[in-house]
Amino acid sequence: MKAPVIIIGAGLAGWTTARELRKLDSDVPITLITADSGDFYAKPSLSNAYAQGRSPAQLVSTEASKMAQTLAVTLLPHTRVSRIDAAARTVGLEGGSALGYSQLVLATGALPIRVPLAGNATQRVLSINSLQDFEAFHAALQAVTPGGGPKPRVLIMGAGLIGCEFANDLASAGYRVSLVDPGASPLAALLPAEASAALQAALEKLGVEFHFGTTVASVNAGASAEAAMDVSLANGQTLTAHGVLSAVGLRADTALAQSAGLKTERAILVDRLLQTSAEGIYALGDGVQYASAASGLSAHGAALPYVMPIMNAARALAATLAGTPTAVHFPLMPVSIKTPALPLVAALPQPGSSGLWHAVQDGIWHWLDEAGQPRGFVLAGAQTAQRMAQSKLVVL
Ligand SMILES: Cc1cc2nc3c(=O)[nH]c(=O)nc-3n(C[C@H](O)[C@H](O)[C@H](O)COP(=O)(O)OP(=O)(O)OC[C@H]3O[C@@H](n4cnc5c(N)ncnc54)[C@H](O)[C@@H]3O)c2cc1C
Predict the structure, then answer these.
(1) Considering the domain boundaries, does residue 333 fall inside one?
(2) Which listed residue, of 29, 31, 323, 340, carries a Cα 20 to 30 Å from 143's Cα?
(3) Res 297: pLDDT
(4) What percent of the chain has pLDDT over 70?
């Protein structure tokens, strides 16, 4: 019997690749191996679940067994791949067994960055990059939520996209929120200064307290109340919090790729066909650096840890796996930032490109390159409705 296409990972990248491949080839055997349950959920929904009153269980859109049945996929849930032998075309599973593959897809995502912290309660600092993480966070907050009285205070480390979305979501649901970031304003790396200031004002109106220009130094069990923690900041201040969420970024876990001798840098390197440095091994999703048109398989590729790049990559990869080599093409991919206090849409310029933000109208900014060409935009508030019209103006 022909060895299957093996996909490692059951996030958006893994399941979408399986679905797109099945559309093109109803016969090819597909095996999906994943360390988690394999249940399908939209990860972006994790950061607006509180305001919508949705529990972790309600976020599962399709159970793993149903996904496997619909797509005629052999699913190995709760199974971790621990090594890859590119020459023998096998993957080794934790526990010792090995499976052969015809083509292999790494859709293994990324892991939250953990910054070293002092203190005796650092195990209570949680990150959210999966449904299981969200379950753990949800349970931890439930455990410290008293019946009646004010809702607990959550301290969020990092005022980037994920930190701001959770700050908005938790504050809308009545939690008290403190946001700590070494920068000077929220989403400072992505937004023009005026948009960042407007976001800060909108979140402050919801009750979010910002602590900029500093970081969390230590987390200790509180002296006053059992459930509270004392969180010391590098600027000498001490805050009280009942939950601490670390949202300081993701990094690809490249250990598995390295076990196969694949080229990696910050993440797994792939070419325009999404092939890694080993023939027949492909990769996509949050664990990948995509090659630019010019660079080929290069360490200068960009990480694109968003939904739209995954959808585009999965379609191209499925065609390649089905026998028609197809280079991935990324159109302009604006990202909606889920901060209902001030909704934002950002279509960012290519990483490293030089230019400056210019206010075009109230709530619209363009990133203009040296020739004055718009290479990206940010829309705020009611102007987010201009997403399509603004996308047409951008020069790719
Ligand atoms: C809170 C939050 C909100 C977001 N909101 C948005 C948004 O609004 N818009 C947007 O565009 N993007 C958003 N994103 C980003 C987007 O959700 C991700 O880019 C995307 O879900 C990543 O999917 P993935 O399949 O690459 O990785 P993952 O979802 O991380 O999946 C990785 C899979 O690999 C498995 N795995 C890893 N290692 C192994 C191994 N060795 N063996 C077996 N299995 C393994 C894991 O168990 C998992 O199933 C958000 C992200 C977060 C965290």
Answers:
(1) no
(2) 340
(3) 55
(4) 97
- Which pTM does this prediction carry? 0.96
pLDDT in tens, 253-270: 899 999 899 999 999 999
Owning domain of residue 36? 5-111+250-321
Domain's final residue, options 246, 268, 294: 246
Ligand 1 atom index nearest CA of 9: 34
- Alpha carbon of 81 to ligand 1 centroid (Å): 17
Centre of ligand 1 to C-alpha 334, Å, is: 18
Both 259 and 205 in one domain: the answer is: no
| Among 84, 376, 49, CA closest to 256 | 84
Give Cα 116 to chain centroid, integer Å: 21
Residue 117 placed within a domain: no
CB of 333 closer than 8 Å to CB of 327: no
CA neighbor of 165 nearest in space, from 194, 139, 132, 190: 190
Low-confidence ranges of the chain (pLDDT < 50): none
Which residues, 6+ apart, have CB-to-CB distance to 369 below 8 Å? Answer: 349, 353, 354, 355, 375
Which amino acid is located at 296 in the chain? G
State in Å: Cα 230 to ligand 1 middle: 31
